């Protein structure tokens, strides 16, 4: 009999975690991780390029393996876990959604910038038609006031979303800001509320707990906290903490810990940690997926990645504007060179 759950965890190491390894997952790695997550009774496992379906590109980073192969492989080894995908309208298409539904993905998470929920209407509609559980994913939630977030969540609800997430893409939200957002959504939105945290300010766990206190029932976790920037809320730790709090996740804690230690840790070139650059993401409110792009261009131009990230934060650059990272860095390097010859 399935164990009872108070909170449903979506494991994102095979999607957000893909950022941490520059989208280099192999079928073998995905099979090992998905099988172990299924055995640990994790309800949802998200699989896709780090930037969502069809993200593999020069702009976002090329995947080593076609994500459709990864999704198919994950579906084939899961007996109880459902495979989820993430799609950003404009990157992923309706056709991509139809394809992954055909491969057996059961949940579609449609992600938009926090003020642009209107672009999700068709994709949410199609996911529902395809019989998928459908989640609205409002990214960069720190950039909008609470009232705006509520308005946008209501739009997603009206399109048919079964749940709406507050997504702290920059890992910039402070616990009281998460509290205010989840509380308002619980008051004004009729569907389940979720929270997706990033650990750039070391607040992913605290923020996830605050979200649960305020009534969120969907929480994202990532084994060994694999994710963009400093990563996400660490699943095995979250499961342990929730167990201590008497909140049921239905997940087998020891199996999660073993997966983290014996399968995931040996795959990593370096452990995921809060570095000075990822800390700046949270501090300056910058999209976590920008980290590797900013580091690469900083190295080429002999700059400090933190300066580029702070400038991107000031300019309020958002997901989908990855090309701006190079533009801003080159502009800064030019100004620096000009000031040296004056
Ligand atoms: C697909 C873009 C992005 O990485 C989604 C996400 O996980 C976030 O905004 O945090
Ligand atoms: Mn994320």
From TrEMBL:
UniProt domain Pyruvate carboxyltransferase: residue ranges: 7-257
Superkingdom: Bacteria
PROSITE patterns to which the protein is assigned, alphabetical: PYR_CT
EC number: 4.1.3.39
Residues that coordinate or bind Mn(2+): 16, 196, 198
Annotated binding of substrate, by residue: 15-16, 169, 196, 287
Annotated keywords: Aromatic hydrocarbons catabolism, Lyase, Manganese, Metal-binding, Plasmid
GO molecular function, one term: manganese ion binding
One matching Pfam family: DmpG_comm
Reactions this protein catalyses: (S)-4-hydroxy-2-oxohexanoate = propanal + pyruvate; (S)-4-hydroxy-2-oxopentanoate = acetaldehyde + pyruvate
Residue numbers marked as site, Transition state stabilizer: 15
One GO-annotated biological process of the protein: L-leucine biosynthetic process
Active site, renumbered: 19 (proton acceptor)
Keyword flag Manganese: yes
EC supergroup of this enzyme: lyase
Classification via InterPro entries: 2-IPM_HCS-like, 4OH_2_O-val_aldolase, Aldolase_TIM, DmpG_comm, DRE_TIM_HOA, PYR_CT
Family that this chain belongs to: Belongs to the 4-hydroxy-2-oxovalerate aldolase family.
PANTHER family per the UniProt record, alphabetical: 2-ISOPROPYLMALATE SYNTHASE 1, CHLOROPLASTIC-RELATED, HOMOCITRATE SYNTHASE-RELATED
Protein name: 4-hydroxy-2-oxovalerate aldolase
Organism per entry: Parageobacillus thermoglucosidasius (Geobacillus thermoglucosidasius)
């Amino acid at each position: 009999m399935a164990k009872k759950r108070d909170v449903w965890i979506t494991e994102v190491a095979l999607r957000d975690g893909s950022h941490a390894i520059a989208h280099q997952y192999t079928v073998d790695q995905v099979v090992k991780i998905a099988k172990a997550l299924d055995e640990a009774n994790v309800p949802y496992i998200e699989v896709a390029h780090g930037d969502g379906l069809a993200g593999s590109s020069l702009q976002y980073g090329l995947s080593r393996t076609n994500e459709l192969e990864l999704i198919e492989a994950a579906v084939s080894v899961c007996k109880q876990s459902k495979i989820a995908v993430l799609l950003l309208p404009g990157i992923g298409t309706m056709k991509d959604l139809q394809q992954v539904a055909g491969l057996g993905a059961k949940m579609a998470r449609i992600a938009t910038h926090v003020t642009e929920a209107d672009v999700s209407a068709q994709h949410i509609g199609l996911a529902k038609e395809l019989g998928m559980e459908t989640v609205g994913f409002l990214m960069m939630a720190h950039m909008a006031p609470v009232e705006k977030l509520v308005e946008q969540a209501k739009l997603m609800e009206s399109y048919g979303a079964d749940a709406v997430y507050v997504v702290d893409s920059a890992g910039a939200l402070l616990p009281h800001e998460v509290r205010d957002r989840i509380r308002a959504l619980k008051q004004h939105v009729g569907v389940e509320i979720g929270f997706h945290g990033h650990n750039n300010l070391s607040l992913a766990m605290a923020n996830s707990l605050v979200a649960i206190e305020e009534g969120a029932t969907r929480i994202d976790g990532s084994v060994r906290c694999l994710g963009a920037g400093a990563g996400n809320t660490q699943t095995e730790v979250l499961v342990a903490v929730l167990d201590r709090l008497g909140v049921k996740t239905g997940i087998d804690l020891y199996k999660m810990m073993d997966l983290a230690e014996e399968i995931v840790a040996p795959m990593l070139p370096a452990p995921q940690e809060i570095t000075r650059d990822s800390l700046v993401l949270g501090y300056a409110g910058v999209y976590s997926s920008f980290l590797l792009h900013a580091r690469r261009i900083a190295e080429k131009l002999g700059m400090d990645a933190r300066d580029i990230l702070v400038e991107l934060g000031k300019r309020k650059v958002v997901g989908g504007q990855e090309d701006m990272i190079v533009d801003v860095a080159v502009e800064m390097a030019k100004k620096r060179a000009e000031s040296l010859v004056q």
